[in-house]
Write a structure and sequence with these properties.
Distance between the termini: 66 Å
Largest sheet: 2 strands, antiparallel
Protein name: KIAA1328
Keywords: Coiled coil
Shape: rod-shaped
Structural class: mainly alpha
Pfam families: KIAA1328
Number of strands: 2
Helix content: over 70%
Strand order of the largest sheet: 1-2
Number of helices: 4
Radius of gyration: 32 Å
Amino acid sequence: MLGDGRGDSLFRGLIESIVSDEEQSVVYVPGISAEGNIRSRHKMVNPKADVKLKTSRVTAASVSMESLKGAGDSVDEQNFCRGGIKSASLKDLCLEDKRRIANLIKELARVSEEKEVTEERLKAEQEAFERKIRQLEEQNDLIIKEREDILFESSLF
């Protein structure tokens, strides 16, 4: 899978994207929680409209999540998380989280490569064992045939 180079280039592209995001300047957006208060400067075309939009999203998200937690309905909570917060991206993460993601991607690539190598080695060992089993079965058949020949010859005398 990854041995063809396509998977490696995909992982490298993601890592380069994360690293290039780290080099961008960041600004504080008032009214946003501490977790999401870092935004890239080039992304904000109209800062006032963006702040109002994001503030209303955060308020709506916190109200909706509190009502879901009170109801204890995990299915609704999962659906909200899938459909309600679609604006999250790598650019919204802090540098530490981006580094963690980059490290996880590198680890995934390494583990995937190890898995591929292990699968190939296992397949080669399995083929070698199958050849050995066929060889032993052939030897066993020869031994049985020789024994029958010896018994047949001894019964003639």
